[in-house]
Each structure stands twice: as structure tokens, then as C-alpha cells.
Amino acid sequence: MAPVRARSVAATRVSRPWLTFLVAAAVGFAILVLTQLLSDTRLAVGPWALNGNGALAVPFVGFPLAIYIGWTQLADRYLGRDLLLQLVAFSSGLTVGAWVLGLLFALPIALATGAVYAIWMRGSAVRRSDALLWVAYAASIVVGALPILGLFGVALLPGSLILLARDKSAAARIGLGAMLVAGTMVIVFVVPLLFPAPAPTARTSPFSS
Q1: How far apart are CA 161 and CA 157, in angstroms?
Q2: How far apart are CA 55 and CA 187, in angstroms?
Q3: pLDDT tens column, 118-135
Q4: Helix count and strand count (H, E) for the chain
Q5: Rounded distance, CA 128 to CA 27, Å?
């Protein structure tokens, strides 16, 4: 009966998309600032440098987690058209607040999450199963491990976990969020160590002796 009560409360909740936009914009701006601060440091942990381009690990991990938390919470509070407005407001705020990082990271992740969410919700209820969502999560990590497709794989991660989190307990949702962070960290930190990019080879001039 708990999910029924939650849905009934959501149906009567007043929608304030502008407030959702502002909150998400603040989160996006925080991710932007943290990325910039790390890029100017000399911080390194073992083989991983978090300065310079290494600071891009922040949006790679931060944006999927922000979308997972934001979309999961909004789905508890709103239904139908109100939910759609809230999700658009949240994703837009996250993108605008992070400026260039938002366009490069937050927007693709939000679009991929929306596509996964829409396709799943429009599908037959008989065919929906948590097993398929776990397969989708694993496939996202595999795609993220492929050369050049890292961001695409990360963008696919939140969708399946947001759907898995529906009507789950708080503890289960925290666990799913931890799995999201673990998946992104595998793509960002572990895969490059296991499959390092080949070093550029020097080209020999035909006029050299």
C-alpha cells in the first residue's frame, strides 16, 4: 500500500518547475566550480592525476549521480505532465548551471536518460523486468569501456538505475546510487589503466639520415 499512498500524494503536490530549475542550476554550478578548482591543483592519487584534464572525472561522475538523485526524487513527487515539466526543468537547470560542461556532459546524459525512460515506460508491462534493467546497466559499462564511447556509456548508466529505483526503499536506492558511482569510476579510472591509449609514434622524415 505504500507505493499507492506515495502516488496519491504526488498527484496533489503543487508543481514548481522554476524552483527545481534553480536547485539543479546550483548543483551544476557546484560541479563546474569543483572541476575548475581541481584542474588548477597538483592533486594525484596513485596513478590517477586529478588536475588538468584529470579534473573531468568530476563531471563524468557528478552529472550521472545528480540526474539519478534528481529524477528519482521527482518521480516520487509528481505524475504525468507535472513530472515531465519537473524533469525538463531539472535537466535544463543542471545544463545551464554548468555552462560548457553542462552542454558537453549534462545535456547528453539527460537526453540518453530521457530516451531510456520513455522507451521503457511506453513498453509492454509484461516485458518489463528488473533483469532487463540489470542487463542494460552492465551493457552501459561495456559500452563505456570501448574506445571513444566512454561518455556514451556513462550517459546510459542512470536510466536503468532510475527505473530500478522506482518504489524501492531508501536503502535500496542508496545502494543503486553507489552502483552508479562505481560504474562511472570503472569507466573513468579503471578502464584507462587496463587498456591504455597507444602512445603516438614519431614520424621519421624521409630526409633524415
Answers
A1: 7
A2: 15
A3: 888 886 655 678 899 999
A4: 10, 2
A5: 32
